[in-house]
């Protein structure tokens, strides 16, 4: 059966709209709970098994017994709904910064299950208790308990990393899962006693995909018998397809996407609940061979891709966030890799404008102008999603310098918000640790004590080796003391992060491991004794660069101009500038980062260099380096809440700067100077990534057509930012996301959504995820409006 | 010049002007008592040399919008900004009126040209030595506010003979001159004014000259208050579409019209 004869483009569009509508009505997501019950039920049967084998067997049981359905509008069979719970706080309208406590309690998710006729409170409690008593939760609690003091006010944070990887499904798409099973059989013939159970686990786990495919095929065939045309044929197509893939290789685009979805579904079930930020990888390169096989023309391909995109939208608010799909880029020898599928995917994105999956675009100096022309519509259509950008010309040398082999460079993709990982080969543990430099500065200035609670959390003046505790001595010695304090907390953070990684290894992931190099190495991706993936590291998200920079500059000014006020400054930090408007304004009026002031920019660069090097020098559970990542996915709000007043004039509990950006409102010299400030940062040391956002006023792009505007966007923003002059030998910035709108426009959308967002959806971007602006909490809406910071991007 | 619609009043005085946001003033920042109850008495500022309000007591309520730079330091700054000159970009000198610092401007432009940096100057055209800068400029942007010397004198404070002379010279000698008419309601915005401007331009060697009409705006109005002055222009209302109508008249004369 030829899929192109079954569906017209219009039918595909119609169905995808109905599918999204169906998802948006989905308030309950209980699938993950059912998975937990199945696992709990069968756990005893496999209790003596090798951990990987046990995990594989349980996965097989889950896949065999989990209830399945196929929506009447579905073009493909498969869902992520069973892997996620409707609880990702930051896109929950009830989210409040002050009451958020992180994701470290694996049993907190049970609060999301609202008892009903089918799921009683006792049933929930039973599984909650079971989960709480597992070795995994018990060990995790020990880690968090050990570092409760340091994490209580977010000097740092740690987490056990789930999701946040980019599998390489291409071998299965091309050759079929059966070929992978044959490879494993071959490996088993010569495998050592230690490795044999792992290979068996991979084999059993991979069989889960075949089981799931067969179950859907049977379901579809059964439904087809009862349905009239055209649904009968559509269901027969699903059944026929799933009797071929993923068992065998795909030979057209429809089969490739269906195969991909089944594999993805199993991957998510394996890590249910909430494996955020699994990412697709270089999607145009993955699917182009299949599009080309049948010479599927662009609009048809786009229509089909819409049904891949809708798969990523889970529940009423698209809860499966930060799942990144990336297109474009160049090869290792500089050839452009944009292809017809790149443009078809763009069409699919534009015409659906769904909150997920997120879109990223790789650029290089010779990116064809056609791509920018096609991107214009994304930037300049109000309420439309916007891609983030990655600069291959910078990332290739950065990754190479950090150990990535030459042949792998072009295969970097992005996991989650902005973490660069090599597709199918890289376990970066990207969100393992989170460092709050602003909090550490507060503790340094306050004798190791919290300015908010008085609790001693850090090293005192004496422990930091300060000359004495006279205020002027403290201020004069602050940079050196801060560095020591950072070192103190980083050591603890690394200890805690590695503890989390050791705990998560109690939950092996044999299915995903098969697509992350496990078949070659015979080692699970999460193994802590041997390295299963070609590349391995642990991430550290570093917060507070602009606040610390501006604070150092303010302290230097005060020492120079009014040293007699040293004590006054420290007192003001403790009491949040109450009744001292004069000093508050003095500090606010000191020079700020983001305005191309050499001394300030050098300070920012020094801090970024020092802390990055410190982080890189730390080793994870496998002896690999931690990766400095200067991003703050809405955590600049959360962590700012735990920081008292700072010497830059920031008030207590106010948000920190976002990523490496100036604190909102402090860069007032326009986009040119802001770019120049940014370019001083040591990007070559940020191999974990970083975050930066420009709010752009569309008035600066008066060109007539979207294509012309896209071209202008390239010339005015991308080229100066990413592809500087030849005189500039340092590594250029490599990441950007934008929101092209104004505070006035967003306020209008809030005040009159029927007029400005008639579909009920107005997409804005927060770092690595698109969100419906109307769905957000007031705190997050306000953050987006403030961070547009249009003064900093005036042209 | 004393254009009543000036958008950069902080540059009207050659010594610069303190700009004040009274809502943020703190009395204690002035040791001389110039600020009382968040109101500033600028007569006290006239005799103040220490300027603690913008140094030791800097604050959010007062700023001084001018800074002194050596030409050498400006060149260094420009060279640091090289990555922004992608796709033909460079340095534009503007103001206020840049040619009020003529020697420094000439030195700076010479140094920029020697570094192969593209240069442009926005000027009101009043400096008699302006033609000396022509060889140092890739683009020359001049305002022409009125064609009639008497009206020019009456409203703006000086005549336009030097300006007209510089425009005529530029049209012949300079490769890329932009002439801009700031469209001011009640001053130069009538249909007859458009025809008069057009006839003037037609007399020039206008092949190398581009013409642009800029719509009146009041983005600088708030700065007059911040400088302690009252915004003098009272009839500031340009109807929607007037710029286009005006430009359409000029188009009939087959001039080289641009819109930047």
Question: What does this molecule look like?
Answer:
The complex is a heterodimer of chains A (795) and B (260). By secondary structure, chain A is α/β, with parallel strands linked by helices. Helix content of chain A is 48%, strand content 8%. Chain A is built from 32 helices and 17 strands. In chain A, the strands form five sheets. Chain A has a six-stranded mixed sheet. In chain A, helix 18 packs across helix 20 (478-504) and helix 23 (545-561) crosses helix 26 (598-616). The longest helix of chain A has 32 residues, at 195-226. In chain B, helix 6 links the parallel strand 8 and strand 9. By secondary structure, chain B is of the alpha/beta class. In chain B, the strands form three sheets. Chain B has a five-stranded parallel sheet. Chain B is globular and about 60 Å long. Chain B is 30% helix and 14% strand. Classes of the chains: A alpha/beta (795), B alpha/beta (260). The A-B interface holds A 561-562, 581-582, 585-586, 588-590, 596, 598, 672, 675-676, 679, 702, 715, 719-720, 723-725, 727-728, 732 and B 24, 26, 28-29, 55-61, 63, 79-87, 89, 259.
What distinguishing features does this structure have?
heterodimer, A: 795 residues, alpha/beta, six-stranded mixed beta sheet, five-stranded mixed beta sheet, B: 260 residues, TIM Barrel, 2 domains, five-stranded parallel beta sheet, two-stranded antiparallel ribbon, 14% strand, globular
């Amino acid at each position: 059966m030829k899929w192109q004869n079954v569906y017209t483009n219009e039918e595909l569009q119609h169905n995808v709209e109905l599918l999204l509508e169906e998802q948006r009505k989905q308030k309950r997501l209980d699938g993950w709970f059912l998975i937990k019950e199945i696992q709990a039920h069968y756990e005893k049967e496999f209790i003596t098994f090798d951990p990987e084998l046990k995990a594989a067997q349980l996965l097989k049981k889950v896949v065999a017994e989990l209830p399945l359905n196929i929506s009447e509008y579905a073009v493909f069979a498969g869902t992520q709904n069973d892997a996620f719970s409707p609880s990702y706080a930051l896109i929950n309208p009830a989210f409040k910064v002050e009451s958020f406590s992180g994701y470290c309690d694996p049993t907190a998710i049970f609060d999301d299950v609202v008892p009903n006729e089918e799921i009683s409170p006792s049933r929930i409690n039973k599984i909650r208790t079971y989960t709480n008593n597992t070795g995994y939760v018990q060990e995790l609690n020990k880690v968090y308990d050990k570092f409760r003091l340091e994490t209580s006010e977010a000097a740092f944070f740690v987490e056990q990393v789930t999701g946040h990887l980019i599998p390489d499904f291409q071998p299965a798409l091309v050759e079929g899962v059966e070929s992978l099973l044959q490879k494993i059989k071959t490996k088993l013939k010569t495998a050592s006693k230690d490795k044999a159970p792992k290979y068996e686990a991979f084999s059993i786990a991979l069989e889960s995909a075949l089981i799931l495919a067969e179950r859907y095929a049977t379901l579809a065939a059964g439904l087809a018998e009862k349905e009239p045309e055209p649904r009968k044929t559509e269901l027969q197509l699903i059944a026929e397809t799933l009797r071929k893939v993923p068992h065998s290789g795909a030979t057209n685009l429809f089969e490739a996407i269906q195969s991909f979805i089944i594999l993805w579904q199993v991957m998510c079930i394996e890590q249910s609940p909430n494996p955020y930020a699994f990412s697709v990888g270089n999607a145009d390169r993955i699917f182009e061979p299949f599009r080309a096989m049948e010479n599927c023309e662009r609009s048809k391909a786009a229509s089909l891709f819409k049904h891949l995109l809708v798969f990523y939208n889970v529940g009423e608010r698209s809860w499966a966030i930060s799942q990144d799909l990336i297109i474009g880029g160049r090869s290792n020898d500089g050839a452009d890799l944009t292809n017809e599928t790149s443009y078809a995917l763009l069409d699919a994105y534009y015409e659906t404008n769904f909150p997920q999956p997120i879109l990223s675009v790789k650029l290089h100096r010779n990116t064809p102008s056609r791509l920018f022309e096609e991107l214009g519509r994304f930037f300049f259509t109000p309420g439309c999603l916007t891609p983030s950008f990655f600069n291959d010309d910078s990332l290739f040398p950065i990754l190479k310098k950090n150990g990535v082999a030459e042949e792998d460079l072009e295969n970097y993709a992005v996991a989650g918000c902005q973490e660069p990982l090599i597709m199918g080969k890289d376990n970066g543990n990207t969100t393992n640790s989170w460092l709050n430099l602003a909090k550490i500065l507060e503790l340094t200035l306050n004798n190791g004590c919290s300015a908010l609670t008085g609790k001693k959390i850090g090293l005192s003046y004496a422990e930091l080796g300060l000359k004495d505790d006279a205020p002027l001595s403290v201020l004069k010695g602050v940079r050196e003391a801060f560095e020591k304090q950072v070192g103190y907390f980083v050591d603890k953070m690394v200890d805690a992060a590695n503890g989390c990684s050791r705990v998560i290894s109690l939950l092996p992931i044999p299915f995903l491991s098969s697509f992350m190099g496990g078949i070659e190495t015979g080692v699970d991706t999460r193994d802590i004794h041997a390295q299963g993936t070609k590349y391995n590291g642990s991430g550290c998200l570093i917060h507070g660069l602009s606040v610390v920079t501006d604070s150092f500059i303010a302290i230097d000014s005060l020492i120079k101009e009014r040293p007699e006020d040293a004590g006054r400054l420290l007192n003001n930090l403790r009491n949040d500038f109450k009744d001292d408007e004069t000093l508050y304004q003095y500090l606010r009026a000191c020079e700020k980062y983001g305005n191309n002031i050499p001394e300030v920019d050098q300070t920012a660069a020094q801090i970024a260099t020092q802390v990055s090097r410190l982080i890189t020098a730390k080793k994870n559970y496998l002896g690999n380096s931690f990766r400095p990542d200067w991003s703050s996915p809405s955590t600049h709000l959360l962590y700012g809440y735990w920081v008292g007043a700072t010497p830059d004039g920031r008030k207590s509990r106010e948000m920190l700067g976002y990523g490496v950006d100036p604190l909102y409102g402090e860069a007032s010299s326009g986009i040119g100077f802001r770019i120049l400030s940014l370019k001083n940062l040591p990007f070559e040391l940020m191999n974990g990534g970083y975050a930066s956002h420009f709010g752009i006023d569309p008035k600066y792009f008066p060109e007539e057509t979207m294509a012309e505007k896209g071209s202008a966007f390239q010339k005015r923003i991308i080229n100066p930012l990413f592809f500087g002059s030849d005189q500039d030998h340092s590594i250029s910035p490599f990441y950007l996301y934008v929101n092209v709108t104004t505070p006035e426009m967003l306020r209008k959308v809030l005040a009159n959504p029927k007029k400005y967002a008639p579909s009920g959806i107005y997409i804005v971007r927060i770092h690595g995820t698109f969100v419906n602006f109307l769905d957000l909490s007031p705190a997050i809406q306000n953050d987006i409006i403030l961070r547009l910071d249009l003064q900093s991007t005036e042209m | 010049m004393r254009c009543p619609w000036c958008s950069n009043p902080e540059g009207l005085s050659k010594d610069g002007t303190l700009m004040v946001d009274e809502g943020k003033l703190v009395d204690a920042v002035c040791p001389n008592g110039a600020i009382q109850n968040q109101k500033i008495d600028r007569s006290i500022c006239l005799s103040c040399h220490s300027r603690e309000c913008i140094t030791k007591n800097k604050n959010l309520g007062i700023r001084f919008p001018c800074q002194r730079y050596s030409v050498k330091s400006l060149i260094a700054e420009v060279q640091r900004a090289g990555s922004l000159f992608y796709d033909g970009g460079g340095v534009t000198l503007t103001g206020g009126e840049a040619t009020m610092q003529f020697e420094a401007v000439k030195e700076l432009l010479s140094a920029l040209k020697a570094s192969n940096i593209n240069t442009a100057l926005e000027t009101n055209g009043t400096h008699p030595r302006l033609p000396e800068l022509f060889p140092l400029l890739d683009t020359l942007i001049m305002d022409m506010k009125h064609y009639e010397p008497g009206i020019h004198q009456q409203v703006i404070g000086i005549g336009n003979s030097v300006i007209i002379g510089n425009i005529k010279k530029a049209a012949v000698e300079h490769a890329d001159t932009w002439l801009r008419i700031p469209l001011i309601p009640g001053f130069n915005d009538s249909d007859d004014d458009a025809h008069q401007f057009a006839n003037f331009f037609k007399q020039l060697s206008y092949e190398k000259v581009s013409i642009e009409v800029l719509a009146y705006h009041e983005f600088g109005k708030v700065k007059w208050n911040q400088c302690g002055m009252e915004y003098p222009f009272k009839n500031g209302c340009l109807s929607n579409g007037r710029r286009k109508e005006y430009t359409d008249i000029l188009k009939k004369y087959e001039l080289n019209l641009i819109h930047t």
